[in-house]
Amino acid sequence: MNTLALGPSWLDPDYLLNQFGIYGLLLIVFAESGLLIGFFLPGDSLLFTTGLLITTSQLKFPLWLAIVLICVAAIVGDQAGYLFGKKVGPALFKRPDSRLFKQENVTKASEFFEKHGPKSLVLARFVPIVRTFTPIIAGVSSMRYRSFITFNIIGGILWGAGVTLLGAWLGRIAFVRENIEAMLILIVLVSVVPIIIEFVKARGESRRAAAAGPGAGPTPPPAPPQRGRHAKR
Length: 233
Known about the structure:
single chain, 233 residues, mainly alpha, 9 helices, globular, VTT_dom
């Protein structure tokens, strides 16, 4: 199956699965779930394509085992992110921008975490970029570990199993198999909708602040989460 690359060719799900197989997939899921360098990886489209390739016998691997391993990789990835955030702490908010690190990504994840609390670990799974930084922010804020692991497991299973099974189910439909490029584009568009909404809201707030007068600038970014803030949630 040849899919339309939704970016550089080496980020095309079909290419990644052909080159690295299921174990390369697991490494990507782990990296995107909790390593700072993994925010750009194509998690949603990769899981969907995996389910589709398995159900059409183009990827020789048991579907049930792939789902189990994907969920484990996602959960362990978030665990690594949490431990990293707990170790680094507020210093993460002072780290300078680089080619692979943008302070605005940390700010977005922090706002998302502050808005939704522990359940953000579940919701963030379905939002690119935010899903990479949210477990790190949970560690920075010293979220109670029992709450973290509970929502981490729930989110990892819903995302890992849900998106993969969606690909497997839709892969049985001839129309989907014949229009896989369009399906992958649709998945990417749906996954970035929350980001677009937040961007539009931010622009609206900036315009309102500008209209209010020169002294009322845009809302400053949130301060680093205080340790223990979510300890009782």
